[in-house]
Specification:
GO terms for molecular function: FMN binding; oxidoreductase activity, acting on the CH-CH group of donors, NAD or NADP as acceptor. The chain is of the alpha/beta class and about 375 residues long. The protein is built from 12 helices and 14 strands. The strands form 4 sheets. An 8-stranded parallel beta barrel has the order 3-4-5-8-9-10-11-12, surrounded by 4 helices. Strands 1-2 form a two-stranded antiparallel sheet. Helix 1 packs parallel to helix 2 and helix 4 packs parallel to helix 7. The structure holds flavin mononucleotide (FMN). Flavin mononucleotide binds next to strand 4 and helix 11.
Length: about 375
């Protein structure tokens, strides 16, 4: 069995190791969702990852209800991404962007309109003090969905123009595509609701649009199949996510990445068993698993053949040279939760690398 440090072909992308950086929203863009120069350093510092998956990146104003998260629908946003992808490439790395429509989790004070979802069901809020910042969404009409598909097409085209190596469709964590997949949030009675086949229709249509722009070898998808995600849940996760994974295999995407929760996780908990064993049977292209991995558990899931690679989230926030640390058994820096989403450089580009401050290592070489 290959190890974390062996190369892997992810569709058209050759990754020199199997350690991926999972998508991490950090809120360092402008109010107009334009990436800022500190993001150049941040991503360059992490260029030894087998593949960087960017933070969730909005496809439209309507779908990006997170303040200071980046977008990919204006020329200004595209231009601001270019030096970021260039810096990663110059440092020997690879980066795809995670395309994001937040659906009912788009805060109305950020998007300036009522958000869309599969059905008009308000998202619950239990992430902190204060009132629920979400609004009851409108059930998307067929015209709305046609526009959303066009927005994904434009964002995919812009991703290529901005220099990304590909895209990851964010179909996880209770956002728009996930709201359509799950029967707790999708109560529609048209061709997008009801049966699993209907609920995964939007996922399939978006993937088709991305493939048309970029090719299947540069198109990937993220799912979070087990348990509640920000209020989105399903009474029978296996019945929707196993066929969805089979459909993605059929479409020939480059890889599928899955965030799987567990009963003790510090990032969303669930007792719902992991679906990766069932999904592995129908998805035979590269399957990347995520959440709560360390070197030992990563090894175990790769040696059993369950995973072809592992995506690390919080460890990548705090360890720009995570590949080297895992390879050498060096201790890991611990991430500071307080600066996950704050503006500025603190807790962002100042985590030290093994050989000194990461910011003083302009030309980190690729690991292999
Ligand atoms: C600060 C922060 C931001 C995140 N942003 C995103 C995001 O933009 N898109 C996404 O799919 N998941 C996002 N996640 C989830 C992570 O990608 C990952 O699934 C989670 O941290 C669990 O992996 P870990 O145990 O390796 O940290 C975020 C998590 C954190 C902690």
């Amino acid at each position: 069995m290959p190890s974390l440090f062996d190369p892997i072909q992810l569709g058209a992308i050759h990754a020199p190791n199997r350690i991926l950086m999972s998508p991490l929203t950090r809120g360092r863009s402008t109010d107009a969702h334009v990436p800022t120069p500190i993001m150049i350093d941040y991503y360059r510092q992490r260029a030894t990852a087998g593949l960087i998956i960017s933070e969730g990146t909005g496809i439209s104003q309507e779908g990006l209800g997170w303040p200071k998260a980046p977008g990919l629908w204006t020329d200004e946003q595209v231009e601001a991404w270019k030096p970021i992808t260039q810096a990663v490439h110059d440092a020997g790395g690879r980066i795809v962007t995670q395309l994001w429509h937040m659906g009912r989790l788009s805060r109305p004070d950020v998007i300036g309109m009522q958000p869309l979802s599969a059905s008009a069901i308000l998202a619950p809020y239990n992430r902190g003090p204060g009132p629920n910042p979400y609004a009851e969404p409108r059930a998307a009409t067929l015209d709305d969905l046609a526009r959303v598909l066009d927005d994904f097409t434009l964002a995919a085209r812009n991703a290529l123009a901005a220099g990304f190596d590909g895209v990851q469709l964010h179909a996880a964590n209770g956002y728009l595509i996930d709201q359509f997949l799950r029967n707790g949030t999708n109560k529609r009675d048209d061709q997008y609701g009801g049966s699993p086949e209907n609920r995964m229709r939007l996922l399939g249509e978006v993937v088709d649009r991305l493939i048309a722009e970029l090719g299947a070898g540069r198109t990937s998808v993220r799912l979070s199949p087990n348990g509640d995600s920000q209020g989105a849940d399903d009474s029978d996760p296996e019945a929707i996510f196993v066929p969805a994974a089979a459909m993605l295999q059929e479409k020939g995407i480059a890889f599928l990445e899955m965030r799987e929760q567990n009963p003790t996780s510090s990032f969303g908990r669930t007792d719902v068993p992991k679906l990766s064993p069932a999904i592995r049977k129908v998805f035979t292209s590269p399957l990347i698993l995520n959440q709560d991995y360390d070197l030992e558990s990563a090894r175990a899931d790769m040696e059993s053949g369950l995973a072809d690679g592992i995506a690390f989230g919080r460890p990548y926030i705090a360890n720009p040279d995570l590949v080297e640390r895992l390879r050498s058994g060096a201790p890991l820096n611990q991430p500071d939760v307080k600066t996950f989403y704050t503006a500025g450089t603190e807790g962002y580009i100042d985590y030290p690398a093994l050989n000194g401050p990461a910011s003083e290592q302009p030309a980190l070489q690729a690991a292999e």
